[in-house]
């Protein structure tokens, strides 16, 4: 029995796509050393009460205010892949310069809403079997930093004088007291609090030790998912941008596996796929089967190389938010196409030798 989705192919007006576009993303694919076409997909992490939990899809998400669809697609890909495939500037260049192989646009029709558009860019990259492992290692490292930050916050003594604290050290008078220096605009006027309670002294020294460990871990991870606030050289706070943690697993899927997913209504063993992603996936498979991509059509490694290494997002010396090439956004899950919507799709050929329209 043929269980493929019946899609209606149409040509959409570009201004409408941009004006009514609610989201976008990227789907990397590659040809391995055996000539097998493989598609890189990500699995959503578990979120209690959300039906999209633990389901596979591309690297995509919702558009934020004042953002173009190209910006959305590049940002979402960078966040959900945690930057292990390419840097944010490379992702943006691929989309802006139309270096992708296919653009697949879904038109989502619903009786309740104005028609919406969702855009995906299929990008051929050199095959790298280590990407899923590097993603997992990066995610584990960022999670470890976050756990350390939580412990650091938990042990903070109630007797600390201010939100931002500088030096914490044993008292110079030879007693067992601990001196805590609060940060001030004028270093000479910084108030010093002396803690004499034995339990709180121990807690204060433990807090200072953990701060040093967090500082070292943040510098080692150097990832924009970790937003750091410093003042006068002292680490004051570290927060996690959860947008980078939405995927918990990456995997290269070959076409046989993906065809099985389509024929089995979005299932492959214990794996489940997000319903709205199935029209995109089916279209991608059809295009690849109609005209397989050339092994030589991958985006150049020179394009994928980002001139700036990943780094933590840090505030400046005055506590103002620092600039980052990886903007942050709050995900609105409801902007994704709903499974019950009527979906039309459009494909656009860009690269010579790639699947036709």
Name the CATH homologous superfamily of the largest domain.
Nucleoside Triphosphate Pyrophosphohydrolase
- Output the number of helix runs: 8
Inertia-based shape: elongated
pLDDT < 50 runs, ≥5 residues:
317-342, 347-357
Order of helices and strands: EHEEEEHHEEHEEEHEEEHEEHHEE
Beta-strand proportion: 25-35%
Which structural class should the secondary elements be placed in? alpha+beta
Radius of gyration: 25 Å
Number of strands: 17
CATH topology of the largest domain: Nucleoside Triphosphate Pyrophosphohydrolase
**Into which percent range does the helicity of residues fall?**
25-40%
Overall tally of structural domains: 2
Name of the CATH class of the largest domain: Alpha Beta
Mean pLDDT: 85
What do these coordinates show?
This protein folds into two domains: 8-138 and 243-309 and 323-349, Nucleoside Triphosphate Pyrophosphohydrolase (Alpha-Beta Complex); 140-242, no CATH class. Helix content is 29%, strand content 27%. It contains eight helices and 17 strands. The strands form three sheets. Strands 1, 2, 3, 4, 5, 6, 7, 13, 14, 15 and 17 form an eleven-stranded mixed beta sheet that branches. Strands 8-9-10 form a three-stranded antiparallel beta sheet, covered by helices on one side. The longest helix is centred in the middle third of the chain and has 24 residues, at 131-154. The protein starts with 7 loop residues before the first strand and ends in an 8-residue tail after the last strand. Mean pLDDT is 85; it is low at 317-342 and 347-357.
């Amino acid at each position: 029995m043929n269980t493929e989705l019946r899609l209606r192919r149409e040509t959409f007006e570009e201004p409408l796509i941009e004006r009514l576009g609610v989201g976008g993303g990227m789907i990397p694919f590659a040809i391995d050393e055996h000539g097998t076409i493989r598609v890189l997909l990500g699995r959503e992490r578990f979120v209690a009460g959300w039906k999209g939990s633990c389901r596979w899809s591309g690297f995509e998400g919702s558009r934020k205010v004042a953002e173009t669809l190209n910006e959305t697609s590049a940002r979402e890909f960078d966040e959900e892949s945690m930057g292990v495939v390419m840097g944010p500037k490379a992702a943006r260049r691929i989309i802006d310069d139309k270096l992708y192989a296919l653009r697949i646009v879904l038109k989502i029709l619903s009786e309740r809403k104005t028609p919406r558009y969702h855009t995906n860019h299929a990008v051929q990259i050199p095959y790298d079997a280590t990407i899923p492992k590097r993603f997992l290692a990066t995610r584990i490292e960022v999670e470890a930093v976050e756990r350390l930050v939580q412990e650091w916050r938990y042990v903070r003594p109630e007797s600390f004088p201010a939100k931002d604290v500088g030096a914490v050290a044993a008292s110079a008078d030879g007693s067992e007291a601990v001196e805590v220096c609060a940060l001030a605009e004028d270093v000479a006027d910084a108030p010093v609090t002396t803690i004499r309670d034995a339990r709180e002294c121990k807690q204060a020294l433990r807090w200072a030790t953990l701060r040093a460990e967090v500082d070292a871990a943040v510098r080692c991870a150097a990832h924009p998912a970790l937003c750091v606030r410093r003042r006068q050289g002292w680490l004051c706070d570290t927060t996690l941008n959860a947008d980078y943690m939405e995927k918990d697993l990456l995997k290269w899927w070959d076409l046989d596996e993906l065809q099985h997913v389509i024929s089995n209504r979005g299932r492959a063993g214990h794996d489940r796929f997000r319903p709205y992603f199935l029209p995109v996936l089916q279209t991608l498979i059809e295009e690849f089967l109609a005209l397989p991509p050339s092994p030589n059509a991958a985006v150049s490694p020179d394009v994928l190389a980002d001139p700036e290494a990943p780094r933590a997002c840090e505030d400046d010396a005055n506590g103002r938010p620092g600039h980052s090439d990886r903007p942050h956004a709050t995900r609105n899950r409801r902007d994704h196409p709903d499974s019950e919507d009527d979906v039309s799709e459009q494909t656009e050929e860009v690269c010579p030798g790639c699947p036709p329209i």
